[in-house]
């Protein structure tokens, strides 16, 4: 199932780190590494996307605190999505 | 006509500057000012002007970095603003060697016994001023476009009392230095480095220079304001590097004019000029490198 909401949430978190470059940055990661269009991004892609984002952001800054903070926010999003999925399954 | 590789033209300008500098004829005004032999003065001027090439190369690096960044954000809302900044930077980067080469070319036709010396001095001063005013006007427009997107309040309230006092002190000190050295009776005197009557000097050179510096400082304030109101920790760091670099470049441009207006005592004139010139070069080089670094970081954000 396509989920534009996931893409938007990843961009929203990224906005706090890359500002106006966030949307273009995430679109590039999704397109280049997952070979998908942003609207085709699914929950299953999230962990792989986070790994790629982590690699790319470490090329932009040496500040490990920023990289860690950013990654953990994205991972939190992934775990929220997973728990949401589990709740949906129980229901 | 579109120039295919402007870098080569820039390199040609630098080579022309070197050739002209090494063969530059000495004027009696310069010899009187430092009270040394023509050969010694020639070596001194070559040594003092040679590092200009490093500043120009650093400025070219900053321009190329800004232009490359603009190339990566085509079609984005920030593009017009950064394009304006890059265009203003382009005027500044090209204006520096062009005005220096023009000054040296005019020095070849200058003879102390005729009035061409005054014309050459006036023309060189106005050419440098003209290029700086255009550069900062275009940069200021670009910065205003960028700040317009953030819907933040006007930059004027951001200009606190400290910054206003700083500008006023610079203006008064600059005017004082020029007027102190002014010798109205002799327009081609070595002490009157502008070859103009006082009232024309104030209206056409001092006030426009203050205006140009003011525009430059407003551009910096706009970029700082943008960095304050734009989300993105890494993006803000790059904007701060850009603003910091621009501050250093403006400071070095102001310092050059102060050095030109300042005539120290004869005994330590050369040492003072030497130390001051190298300090100004160092500030300018650091400024341009910082601008380039900020632009490169933003470019990387658009490429990885």
Q: What can you see in these coordinates?
A:
The complex is a heterodimer of chains A (91) and B (304). Helix content of chain A is 76%, strand content 0%. Chain A is mainly α and 91 residues long. In chain A, α1 packs across α2, α1 runs antiparallel to α4 and α3 packs antiparallel against α4. The longest helix of chain A is centred in the C-terminal third of the chain and has 27 residues. The model of chain A has no long low-confidence stretch (mean pLDDT 84). Chain B starts with 5 loop residues before the first helix and ends with a helix. The mean pLDDT of chain B is 84. Chain B is mainly α and 304 residues long. The chains are: A mainly alpha (91), B mainly alpha (304). Chains A and B meet through α1, α2 and α3 of A and α9 and α10 of B.
Short description:
The complex is a heterodimer of chains A (about 90) and B (about 300). Chain A is an all-alpha fold. Chain A has helices at about 5-20, 20-35, 45-60, 65-90.
Give the arrangement of secondary structure elements:
The complex is a heterodimer of chains A (91) and B (304).
Chain A: H1 4-18, H2 22-33, H3 46-60, H4 64-90
Helix pairs in contact in A: 1-2, 1-4, 3-4
Chain B: H1 6-22, H2 28-34, H3 38-49, H4 52-72, H5 79-109, H6 116-149, H7 161-181, H8 198-229, H9 233-261, H10 269-301
């Amino acid at each position: 199932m396509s989920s534009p909401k996931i893409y938007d949430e990843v961009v929203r978190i990224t906005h706090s780190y890359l500002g106006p470059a966030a949307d273009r940055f995430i679109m590039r990661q999704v397109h280049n590494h997952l070979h998908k269009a942003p609207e085709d991004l699914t929950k299953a892609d999230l962990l792989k996307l986070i790994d790629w984002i982590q690699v790319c952001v470490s090329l932009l800054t040496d500040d490990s605190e920023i990289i860690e903070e950013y990654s953990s926010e994205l991972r939190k999003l992934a775990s929220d999505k997973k728990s949401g999925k589990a709740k949906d399954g129980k229901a | 006509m579109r120039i295919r590789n402007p870098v080569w033209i820039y390199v040609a300008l630098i080579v022309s500057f070197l050739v002209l500098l090494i063969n530059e004829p000495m004027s009696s005004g310069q010899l009187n000012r430092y009270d040394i032999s023509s050969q010694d003065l020639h070596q001194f001027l070559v040594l003092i002007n040679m590092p200009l090439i490093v500043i120009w190369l650093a400025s070219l690096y900053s321009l190329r970095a800004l232009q490359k960044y603009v190339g990566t954000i085509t079609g984005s809302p920030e593009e017009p603003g950064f394009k304006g900044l890059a265009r203003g930077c382009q005027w500044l980067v090209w204006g520096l060697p062009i005005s220096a080469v023009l000054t040296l070319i005019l020095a070849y036709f200058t003879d102390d016994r005729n009035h061409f010396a005054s014309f050459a001095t006036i023309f060189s001063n106005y050419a440098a001023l003209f290029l700086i005013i255009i550069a900062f006007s275009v940069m200021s427009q670009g910065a205003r476009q960028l700040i317009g997107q953030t819907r933040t309040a006007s930059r004027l309230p951001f200009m606190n009392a400290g910054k206003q006092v700083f500008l006023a002190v610079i203006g008064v000190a600059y005017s004082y230095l020029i007027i102190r050295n002014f010798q109205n009776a002799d327009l081609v005197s070595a002490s009157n480095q502008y070859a103009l009557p006082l009232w024309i000097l104030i209206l056409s050179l001092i006030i426009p220079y203050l205006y140009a510096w003011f525009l430059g400082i407003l551009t910096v304030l706009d970029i700082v304001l943008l960095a304050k109101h734009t989300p993105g920790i890494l993006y803000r760091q790059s904007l701060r590097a850009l603003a910091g670099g621009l501050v250093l470049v403006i400071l070095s441009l102001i310092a050059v004019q102060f050095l030109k207006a300042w005539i120290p005592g004869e005994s330590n004139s050369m040492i003072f000029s030497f130390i001051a010139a190298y300090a100004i070069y160092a500030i300018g080089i650091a400024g341009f490198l910082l601008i380039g670094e900020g632009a490169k970081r933003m470019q990387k954000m658009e490429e990885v």
